[in-house]
Amino acid sequence: MSNGVHSPEPAQAICLSVNGRKRDVQAAPDTPLLYVLRNDLELNGPKYGCGLGECGACTVLVDGVAARSCVIPVRGVVGREIMTLEGLGSPDCPGPTQQAFIECQAAQCGYCLNGMIMAVEALLRRNPDPSDQDVRQELRHNLCRCGTHVEILQAARRAAQLRAQLRGAAPAGTGGAA
Question: pTM score, two decimals?
Fold first, then answer.
């Protein structure tokens, strides 16, 4: 720290739990999680959008809660479970929320899609039968400039239906997810 200039922390071995697997990376502890996910682990679901945690393109789940990976230092998620879009399913076998977005064609340019899917996934884990208002509230900080909001709401309702079918229960329909 000579001349008052801050030196970044040196890279060190960091063990992360990502998509159910332990992953070792070399990174400075203050490196944004997004950079480690994309550059070191080649998980390209989370996107770099604003870099300020405001647009939602970089959303991942941390212990089941939607989080903006561009503003979380990697040291902040050591010992926690990180789930990316890739952890929800695969191209051959998409998860229910991914499948719903495909069926409802809830994408145009697709840049916001990661954040929208991950936010809906987090909501459905907490509330399996959300109302349209619940979905709007959950997505209020996710930006979509293409105007696919109607399709995104349809996809959220469809995802609730698909998840209910997997649980073997019909969606209650009281929350607007029918």
Answer: 0.88
